[in-house]
Amino acid sequence: MAYDYGTMEKKWQARWIEAGLDKSDRDDSKPKFMAIFAYPGVTGYLHVGHLRGYTYLDAIARYKRMTGYNVLFPVGTHATGNGGISLYNRITRKDEGTIDYLKRNGCTDEDIEKMKSPLDVIEFFNNVYQTEYWKKFGFLSDWRRFTCTLYPDYAKFIDWQFRKLHDAGMLIQKPYYAPFCPVHGPVAVDASETDISKGGKAETQEYTLLKFKHGDEFLIAATLRPETVYGQVCFWVDPETEYKKIKYNGEVWIVSPQAAEKMVLQKDGIEEVGSVSGKDMVGWMCEAPMIHREIPVFPASFVNPDVGTGLVTSVPSDAPDDWISLEAIKKNPEMITKYGLSQDILDKAVPISIIEMKGYGEFPAKDIIDKLGIKEPGDPKLLDAKHIVYKDGFHTGKMKDICGEFAGLRVQEAQEKMKQAMIASGEADTFHDLTEEVICRCGARVHIKRIDDQWFINYADPKFTQMTKDHCKNMELNPPEWSDNVYGVLDWFRERACVRLGNWLGTKFPYDDKWIIEAISDSTLYPVYYIISIYANEKQIKPEQMTEEFFDYVILGKGDSATVSKNTGIAAELLEKIRKDVLYWYPLDLNLGGKEHMTVHFPAFLMNHIAILPEEMWPRGITVNWYITGKKDKTGEATKISKSKGGAQPIPGAAAKFGVDAMRLYYANVASMFVDVEWDEDTVLTYRQRVDRIMMAVQDLIASESDAPKAGIDDWLISRFNNHIINIRKAMDKNDLRAMTTITYFDMFNDMKWYNRRGGSNKDTILEALKIWIQCMMPVTPHTAEELWEQAGFEGLVSANQMPEADESKISVAAEYGENLLRDAMSDITEIRKIAGIEVKKIVLYTSAQWKKDVMNLALDMMKEGKLSIPDLTKACMAREDLRKNGKAVSSLAQKVAVEFQRSTVEQKQPVVDTDEAALFSSAAGFLSEENGVPVEVCSADAEGIYDPQGKAKVAVPGRPAIYLE
């Protein structure tokens, strides 16, 4: 049967709004639970990956409502930065790819025509996110509290936040080398890719610029290993590059064109004065810094003009690229002839051993090359070789005697000392560059620029760092491995540039309005603003009234309502109400966000709370969810789905194809939230089919209701469901949606199937079980739950119901054990029939003789007293005449039972001796006959004159009937 999920979703979403379930107001009679997900950046349409974490939070919030909490689940958007501007600019110039992207996601020509400014673009997507994503997915957020980082009232809050950071001594100003876009100015480069479209993993590296004197000019090489200068034997140049001559500080430097462009951003007074071909430089001699020895310039294909300065000094003893390239050029007569290289100079270019390293010989580069089997330049394994030998050298290396005054120093110490010595002598300088290409959202290449008066939030402050680490010990942090690592992250977290120059959207910096507060820095304390935003949205307060004094009172409790009212024009009663709201809802109970936030957003989120708010308002929990990824690339790495790069169909299309609840169930159940999951439509379809099957199963159960009397199977079903309630609550109390959904959508479904298969049809049992089942479905598949709730005839909305609580008086260990025993016997029959391979006309089940149960009873009594052992049980059995008469069989069974029971518990073994197996199997004989297609007889091994042609009855034991096939 095909279900119209779209109509069903709209129906119940409207009912929830009508019932006011989306509204969250202070209720002092209830405990509160406040949760948020990290609000998304407004840079385009969201994708199916975003909905994973969002769905988790809605399910958790729904569960909390059902367990008696007053839940606040607000949402907003993060539009700070250049994403909206970049998108607007592409729309304005009618970029074909952008227009196609918009239309593929449902944007009309009329919508595009209305986008007259970046703010129009932002507001369009604000509406899309709310109506097409969050509301369509059934999220019960308090929509009255929606906010955006570009709203004037939000800007007033951020202004206040930065004034509090300043008061706490957390704002500092100093020179800074910042990733810089020529269009938008400084950008943030981090895993969140808020400001950029490529290069989120890039880091800023400081190179040492080594000056190699050639006449009146200097060849400039950038190195990360200044400690290796004593091992320089030659110099590499790309013969295909036309190098620039630039004048700086009275010196003429030779660097690649790309390096010259980058240096202009970092050094004042640079002037281009000429150029020289790399080909013409081959064969030059230049004087190496510090060692003051002339070395030759050789050609090399591995030199990249876009990395460093496009010129490389060669230390073959410790650099695998240098070793293999030097060996190759010496063996290449064509190249020697082409560039007119002197054989004498080539012969003199021999490696110099400079560092003693653990596990390596005289020349570490040669050792690692031989180990990895590298034969020629360009081998991909050279990158691994470089990383290995550099890492080992840094951690275990010691400078040899040839290194002059630095001999005997560990590499870690020598590196900085040698660098500073060369800078002091004028033989070196510094230069900053990115480790990989970074592209701004506007499409421009990002480089590093020196900014002399940059403002920072000082996350390296030792006092606040320690306070944050101490608080983390009292928080609920998931997953556990992140909980373990967060302390190291906080130690690593340093000063963060918090403002940007240039064309940016955001809040003006209160201490110098030429700056705009950047995208991470204005998204740390915002959860508390959701509590206040409703009053701005409903026009009860105006942005201009939201002064520092206003926020000091409602958030920090400073001052009194009468004075603040007089100074702001806000009624004292309203101020007091807002203050009570803040005290009621805060602290935040759960902040849920993607794993990109682990090292960027979450540390800043924590430290801002600790620096600004009193301890009783510090956050209580953070949960990190992993990604939905695209298909794996050729290297086997999963590709990231992104708003800008695509990789998945639009959310509305996926929702229409699979149904919202099927997607919600997919997110919740496909894997732990702490692992990446590859988006696969075939897998999502299986969850659509699962929802279909549950819908049909419930309808069939409702149709099968009858006045049949209750039987053992009814006790079993209700017992099972009450046990499920216990385990579902345990799972949800740990936010383990996968465990919860496995029980609800698989175990409970299978139980209902088994009940139906066993002939269960009692109306009261079915309705009792259905009520529990549907209530348990509600957090994850709310639309389906509401529809089934209505079909079953239950009153009201299941979304407004309480989560069922287990009735332990209805949990029957005996009923569940008996049904498991029956299922095990059925499995044994199937297996024996398969092995026998004969046409079966009749099946006989033999239940155990009573004396065997008596042995187990004795063992159970000893277990309860903690005295069970093989000798003691055997002795007790032989002391009873009724048991002793069974001879050696008694002692043999006693030994087996003692061993088996010692591995178990009283609770597990009690039903084994309590169950009347003869009665159990006799009552199920008709069912067993129907299932097996042949008559099934049940006999007790104690009965006289039983039919037992193969003597099977004697092997039956409690919990394992014997089986005879005829």
Tell the overall outline.
globular
Q: Could you tell me the mean pLDDT?
A: 94
The percent of residues in helical segments reads 40-55%
What integer value in Å does the Rg equal? 37 Å
Kindly state the number of beta strands: 33
Uncertain stretches of 5 or more adjacent residues: none
- The secondary-structure class comes to alpha/beta
CATH superfamily of the domain at 204-434: Valyl/Leucyl/Isoleucyl-tRNA synthetase, editing domain
CATH architecture of the domain at 204-434: Alpha-Beta Complex
Provide the CATH topology of the domain at 204-434: Isoleucyl-tRNA Synthetase, domain 2
How much β-strand is present in the residues? 15-25%
Largest sheet: 6 strands, mixed
Q: Please state how the strands of the largest beta sheet are arranged side by side.
A: 13-11-12-9-8-19
Q: What's the CATH C level of the domain at 204-434?
A: Alpha Beta
- Helix count from the secondary structure assignment: 37
Distance between the termini: 43 Å
